[in-house]
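Propose amino acids for all 420 sites.
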């Protein structure tokens, strides 16, 4: 038996140079978390081939809407196809929604007796990063209504993983602000809100579904984030062109740009800006989204859909200028040359790769549904060729498909392996 090459690796190196005509993929996936099967959609643009690390956008639905509804309402997939980023649409768990009945929602109050949705999304990020080539310095969160509130909560609870957030029609409620969300580091914020929003009033108070919860005025809510981000109260305001006069609304953009500077290394800097798209006369809707986002007969309930801007495009343009702080430039994943052999394996696996410089290395094993089985290796290695050996002899693992996940600083790559 020849040991000079790994046949499986050589076969894959040949295969990956050839493909059918590219098409975008929409995957309806499941992830087990805390004993529950959680659902999410993943949109993979046709141009993605895994050779480069791509940004990831979490797009979160509002109360009473599901993952498909948020995808259709926001129309973010075409933006992702053009700008080249991956979109995940997670779904909350079923709960009682006023005037609707049982429908998906988020545990924004961090009720200990309800599913921990922050932990679920954190777990989902780990799963996606393990399976795809994601630029972990460019993971973003957006959403509408309660999904927007979840974006703010992510910025509070796991700010080390979220580079910027954007919310449409969703503020953190007065009841939640002090108990579940106390920001501890600056993060860029974009907010879009209609002045005629009846569900989350622009000037604060309970919406028409009230009396609970209550919402702060949008300006007061953003003032708290400006204080967190070290912003001055000086803003530039721009009245955007009213390109569609039939929508009975217009947009004023307020930019608070005199904020804390975030150093990214390599003479790169970003500012923790706070932007507000004030949709004058706008309702509880996603600007630029389809009319189908409003159920028939509920037009007065949800209000106008602004057509002067496309919220998904504006959100991405805001995200695209921002990333997390990285102390050292990332190691290009294509230079690692990760190979797992033999593959399929029986009792022993070898992992070989090459480091361009000294770096902390973590190698982990996951099962097919994204559960971490074992940390195989976790320490700093020097520059050059590396090989890590893993022995399955004393482990009880059922035969099947697994994934090895190699993390170098903030860069992650993964490879499927088969255990016989």
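Proposal:
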């Amino acid at each position: 038996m020849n040991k000079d090459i790994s046949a499986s690796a050589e076969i894959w190196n040949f295969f990956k140079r050839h493909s059918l005509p590219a098409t975008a993929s929409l995957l309806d996936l499941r992830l087990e978390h805390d004993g529950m099967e959680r659902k999410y959609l993943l949109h993979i643009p046709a141009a993605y081939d895994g050779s480069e690390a791509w940004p990831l956008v979490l797009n979160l639905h509002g109360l009473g809407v599901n993952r498909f509804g948020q995808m259709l309402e926001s129309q973010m997939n075409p933006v992702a196809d053009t700008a080249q980023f991956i979109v995940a649409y997670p779904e909350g768990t079923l709960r009682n929604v006023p005037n609707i009945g049982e429908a998906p929602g988020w545990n924004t109050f961090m009720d200990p007796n309800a599913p921990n949705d922050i932990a679920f999304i954190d777990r989902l990020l780990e799963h996606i990063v393990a399976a795809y080539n994601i630029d972990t310095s460019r993971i973003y969160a957006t959403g509408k209504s309660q999904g927007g509130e979840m974006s703010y909560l992510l910025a509070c609870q796991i700010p080390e993983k979220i580079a910027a957030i954007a919310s449409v029609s969703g503020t953190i409620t007065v009841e939640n602000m002090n108990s579940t969300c106390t920001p501890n580091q600056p993060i860029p914020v974009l907010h879009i809100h209609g002045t005629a929003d009846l569900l989350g009033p622009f000037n604060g108070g309970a919406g028409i579904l009230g009396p609970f919860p209550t919402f702060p005025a949008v300006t007061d809510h953003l003032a708290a984030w400006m204080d967190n981000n070290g912003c001055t109260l000086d803003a530039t305001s721009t009245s955007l062109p009213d390109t569609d006069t039939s929508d009975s609304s217009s947009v004023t953009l307020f930019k608070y740009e005199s904020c804390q500077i975030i150093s990214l290394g390599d003479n790169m800097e970003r500012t923790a800006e706070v932007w507000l798209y004030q949709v004058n006369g706008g309702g509880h809707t996603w600007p630029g989204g389809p009319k189908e986002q409003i159920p028939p007969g509920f037009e007065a309930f949800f209000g106008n859909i602004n057509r002067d801007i496309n919220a998904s495009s504006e959100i991405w343009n805001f995200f695209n200028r921002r990333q997390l702080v990285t102390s050292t430039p990332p190691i290009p994943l294509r230079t690692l040359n990760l190979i797992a052999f033999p593959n399929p394996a029986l009792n022993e696996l070898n992992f070989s790769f090459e480091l361009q410089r000294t770096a902390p290395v973590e190698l982990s094993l996951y099962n097919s549904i994204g559960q971490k089985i074992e940390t195989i290796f976790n320490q700093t290695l020097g520059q050059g060729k590396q090989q890590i050996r893993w022995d399955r002899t004393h482990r009880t693992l059922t035969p099947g498909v697994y994934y090895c996940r190699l993390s170098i600083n903030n860069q992650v790559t993964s490879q499927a392996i088969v255990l016989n």
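DSSP finds nine helices and 23 strands in the chain. The mean pLDDT is 90.
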